[in-house]
């Protein structure tokens, strides 16, 4: 975000888009084993999103490089095989609606990152896999959005155990 947003009127699309400083491409990872165990117990599963390396992001993408964020191709490959490949026009909610909805729950502040969701094709990765991702506008890759992420084991002391 480029500036503070609080209680934004959902019809004020211009203010929502003006509040955005730049874009980024991210890979939002989840530890599904931990998520499923927490869900079974009716517990919060936010821990499954919080491990080191679970949200690699690209360089910032200037708004001028992404003139219509609702019409860009997002793709992800694992070990060179396509897993996700879809256009942002398929988003269930457009960016102004997301910014408005979030701003009603919490104040969005300058520097905050907002993650909007993912195309179909979510699936597992294992240690040793390499994820690559990118964003294309008008058939041309945006260099700033290029990601290459090796999947590695966590270096922390946390050990998952089903109960």
Q: What is the overall silhouette? A: globular
Helix content: 10-25%
Query: How would you state the average pLDDT, rounded?
Result: 92
Low-confidence stretches: none
Output the structural class: alpha+beta
Quaternary organisation: single chain
Largest sheet: 5 strands, antiparallel
Layout: helices, strands, pairs:
Elements lengths: L12 H6 L3 E2 L8 H9 L20 E2 L10 E6 L2 E7 L7 H11 L24 E8 L2 E2 L5 E4 L13
Antiparallel strand pairs: 1-2, 3-4, 3-5, 5-6, 5-7
Description:
This protein has 163 residues and is of the alpha+beta class. The chain is 16% helix and 19% strand. It contains three helices and seven strands. It has helices at 13-18, 32-40, 95-105; strands at 22-23, 61-62, 73-78, 81-87, 130-137, 140-141, 147-150. The strands form two sheets. Strands 3, 4, 5, 6 and 7 form a five-stranded antiparallel β-sheet that branches. Strand 3 and strand 4 form a beta hairpin. The radius of gyration is 17 Å and the shape is globular. The relative contact order is 0.23.
Main traits of this protein?
single chain; 163 residues; alpha+beta; five-stranded antiparallel β-sheet; 7 strands
Summarize the structure.
The protein is built from three helices and seven strands.
